[in-house]
Amino acid sequence: MSDLGEESSVHGQSREGISGESALDLIDQSSLFFAEHILDRINPRHKDLGELIHSRSRWSGGILAGFIVFWWLTVSRPSEDYSVATSIFFGPSFLTVTILVPGLIFIGSILSDLSRENGQLFPGMISGIMFVLAILYVFEPVFTGFFSEALTVNQGLWRFARLAVLGGTVFIAAKFLIDAILLGWVKRWVETNPGIDFAGRSEEANEPEIVPEFKAEA
Fold it and tell me: Given 50, 82, 206, 209, which is the most exposed site by the fewest CB atoms within 10 A?
């Protein structure tokens, strides 16, 4: 009985060890798949991760700085009555909309990438709602200028143009920032797994496929 008990305990420990190693391998494989997915989407093209992170974070910061300057020059400084023609979507003024639209696009972009990278349903649904609401806010002044007396056509188009520029710049800056964050995660993961090397991935991906030629026999 004691021998059987010892044998069963040994088998039990071996099973636990194997299951633990399998779980660890599964985690490593999932992390490797996630890292490859990020690199496949961003497509490094012969650049190291540090340079990619630096370039994307620099572009993100520069675009956000341009966004602030544009908002200050075209929205904050002009003496315009922003209480005229408030939005029919929850009633914010145009000044509030100029902050609300970039915020919706920025948060929606983060949730959209979170849903895409992790395969999650709920963040994708929320991001879709945010994007639709932001688009409605952007195009609303145009319809107000054409079909309402609250704004002239020129005023509606000018409001639309400012919202489009503000929303577009934030969307691009958010994409660069999200890519930098994801590449930062890949860089940290590669550093903790020194056996993984992605240096030659882009070269291998860009190599032309060799197709064998077949000649018909006479």
Answer: 209
Contact between 126 and 111 under an 8 Å Cβ cutoff? The reply is yes
Q: Is 163 exposed, middle or buried (0-12, 13-18, 19+ CB in 10 A)?
A: buried
Q: Which two tokens stand for residue 72?
A: 């200050």
Cβ neighbours for 217, distance < 8 A, ≥ 6 positions apart: none
pLDDT digits 0-9 by tens, 102-148: 999 999 999 998 888 777 889 899 999 999 999 999 999 999 999 88
**Each residue of 77-110: pLDDT tens digit?**
888 888 888 889 988 999 999 999 999 999 999 9
Cα separations (Å) of 130 from 65, 172, 175? Answer: 23, 16, 16
Are 138 and 87 in contact by the 8 Å Cβ rule? The answer is no
Average pLDDT, whole number, for the chain? 78
Q: How far apart are CA 102 and CA 104, in angstroms?
A: 5
Distance (Å, whole) CA 59 – CA 57 = 5
CA pair distance 206, 51, nearest whole angstrom = 20
Query: DSSP readout, 109-177?
Result: HHHHHHHHHHT-HHHHHHHHHHHHHHHHHHHHHHHHHHH-SSS-HHHHHHHHHHHHHHHHHHHHHHHHH
Within 10 angstroms of residue 12's Cβ, the number of other Cβ atoms is: 10
